[in-house]
Amino acid sequence: MSAYKALALVYDRLTEDVAYERWADYIERQFRRNGKEIHTVLDLACGTGSLSVALANRGYEVIAADASEEMLAVAQEKGRQVTGIAPVFLHQAIENLDLYGTIDACVCCLDSLNYIPEQTLWQGIQKVHLFLEPGGLFLFDVRPPWALKAMDGQTFFDEREDVFCIWRAEYEARWKRCRFWMDLFQLEPSGLWSRSMEEHVEYAHTMQELVQMLEQAGFIQIQQFGNLKLRPPKEGEDRIFFTARKGTNI
Q: What's the N-to-C CA distance of the chain in angstroms?
């Protein structure tokens, strides 16, 4: 029932609607706004490495980390397609981040931080701050609490010729989290269907909690943006981006 095991081999097919090049465009726009030249980028919770590859193909030196060995195995193969320097992939969770040097920027996308409970997230934010160069940028997005609450009781389907996925959501107000139960059916070469089950949990971090953690870790110039926008988030927006800088007087 662990997350991102059976799902890893079909994740890219089930997320074909994610425009990674558009995400990379947005990240570069934020990089330019930061004022510090960016060369080395950490793609935290990189998944199957699609964004890592997109950034590497744009000339960035990319380090990519994820807690799922299965997702990293897919990412490693994908990294061979990079025309320049391939990303370095690390099997590391955010709270155990241990890089061999510093980075100019860290990105953590597609609500990956929602998968991390509050105490662990605080540890992870401290780790990111530790490895960022002074003036470095931390960029991430989250699903706000109202977006997770809106999923309560909903059922979602995704169907391909040889893959069928159904997942159900339940919001648990007491624990401020949304649990997703996923049934994944895959057509095997034998002609029979195999079934796998996974459980995913996303935590409803408030914007105030995130700002407080960033400030306590030492980040400055903390800003919030709408979904892939450079404007402040609108009321009810279902994805919010954050940017924060590490101070230069460290």
A: 43
Question: Other C-beta atoms within 10 Å of 162: how many?
Answer: 13
Could you tell me which CATH number the domain at 6-143+206-246 has? 3.40.50.150
The whole model's pTM is what?
0.95
88 forms bridges with which residues in the sheet? 63
User: In angstroms, rounded to a whole number, what is the distance separating the alpha carbons of residues 88 and 61?
Assistant: 9
pLDDT in tens, 200-215: 999 999 999 999 999 9
Q: Under CATH, which number does the domain 146-203 receive?
A: 2.20.25.110
Nearest to 144 by CA among 191, 187, 111: 111
- Spatial neighbors of 17 by CB under 8 A, at least 6 apart, are none
pLDDT in tens, 142-154: 999 999 999 999 9
Domain boundaries, the chain: 6-143+206-246, 146-203
